[in-house]
Amino acid sequence: MSTKASRTAARLMLAPAVILLLGWMLVPLSMTLIFSFQRYLPMRGGFQDWVGFENYVRFVTSSAFWPSVQTTLVIVGSVLLITVALGVLLAILLDQPMWGQGIVRILVIAPFFVMPTVSALVWKNMFMDPVNGLFAHLWRFFGAQPALFLSEAATPSIILIVSWQWLPFATLILLTAIQSLDSEQLEAAEMDGASPLARFWFITLPHLSRAITIVILIQTIFLLAVFAEIFVTTQGAFGTRTLTYLIYQRVLESQNVGLGSAGGVYAIILANILALFLMRIVGKNLDR
């Protein structure tokens, strides 16, 4: 049984770690907020003036702001839909007894360990190149003109690349969840005459709801910051400029750290709105 002295000692021992974590989080956030109210040009003399909310107004009234928010939401939503749907399917398939099951699982999970820059280069040069890419050869084999994926279908191409990277993560989490499903429930339902689709819909899918929620929550946090895939393949052209990439461009073009910081604050607000929405879903699922 813990005493008052032991609880005090525990708090004192935890205090350095808590203070370090708070500093780790609050210092960059505070600096971003301070810079966002300044005209700060490091390459042209540094701090020049306090401008109040001018950077915020300038950033949000830019013609590229709302399209970038829309592109961000389209990429995040599409990747989540693809990875969760295919992740459930792959998790069910990988849970079935098969020869070489361990090797197959490693091959399915392997893309998750490829760095985003490398995977973007592989897809750009080996698959989507209109001259020497694998898809171009397939198109010509069937007598069709090779498609210009990264210009004519740039956003779907980015979604495909990012989905390929994150599908193994969703599959791994869902496979772990599906292995904890009591097989006696499925056997009892089968003996009662339930079809495979009914067993999936009324037993398997509800069992995976918590895992799906966790996958959506974690992936959303990282997908909001997708950058390398866009930088390597399209450099923000053809409607692929997300909010993260717009902030990078604004800082690079104007060399105004204050303007980029204001964009960063908007990105934090967007991420928190999505996080609050998702946390409500997580809370409901975890309470069941």
Automatic annotation (TrEMBL):
Keywords: Cell membrane, Membrane, Transmembrane, Transmembrane helix, Transport. Residues 69-278 form the ABC transmembrane type-1 domain. Pfam families: BPD_transp_1 (PF00528). One of its GO terms (biological process) is transmembrane transport. It comes from the Bacteria. GO terms for cellular component: plasma membrane. It is found in: Cell membrane. The chain crosses the membrane at residues 12-37, 73-94, 106-123, 158-178, 211-238, 258-279. Its main location: membrane. InterPro entries: ABC_transporter_permease (IPR051393), MetI-like (IPR000515), MetI-like_sf (IPR035906). It is a multi-pass membrane protein. Belongs to the binding-protein-dependent transport system permease family. PANTHER family: ABC TRANSPORTER PERMEASE PROTEIN. This is Sorbitol ABC transporter membrane protein /mannitol ABC transporter membrane protein. It comes from Roseinatronobacter monicus. The lineage of its organism: Bacteria, Pseudomonadati, Pseudomonadota, Alphaproteobacteria, Rhodobacterales.
